[in-house]
Design brief:
The chain has 97 residues and is of the alpha+beta class. Helices cover 14% and strands 31% of the residues. It has a five-stranded mixed beta barrel. The radius of gyration is 13 Å and the shape is globular.
């Protein structure tokens, strides 16, 4: 299940921001690999298996997650303020669910 995968890889998460994704903990710019089925969908929160650096830092094996799962599975790692959805903030049109 996606929650079980989140429990195992909770430290490999990124959030959609202006100009692309940023890892949750270190704010590193990352991008969904163009071969990914999620590339066109641009979900707001994702979890990835690995980062591959070619022309950019690309996330590979990506799934969409719910940010609330991160507090459930890793309260020792995340604080609620890091996981605020920011839905009040404007997102670029047609990105982020």
């Amino acid at each position: 299940s996606p929650q079980a995968i989140t429990a195992g890889f909770f430290y490999h998460t990124a959030r959609l921001a202006r100009g692309g994704y940023r890892t949750v903990k270190h704010q590193q710019p990352v991008f969904i690999h163009p071969n990914s089925a999620l590339f066109a969908l641009q979900p707001r929160w994702v979890l990835y298996h690995e980062l591959v650096c070619t022309s950019k830092e690309f996330m590979r094996q990506v799934i969409e997650i719910d940010s609330s799962w991160l507090l459930e599975v890793a309260p020792h790692y995340y604080q609620a303020k890091e996981l605020e959805d920011g839905s009040g903030r404007k997102m670029p049109k047609k990105t982020g669910k």
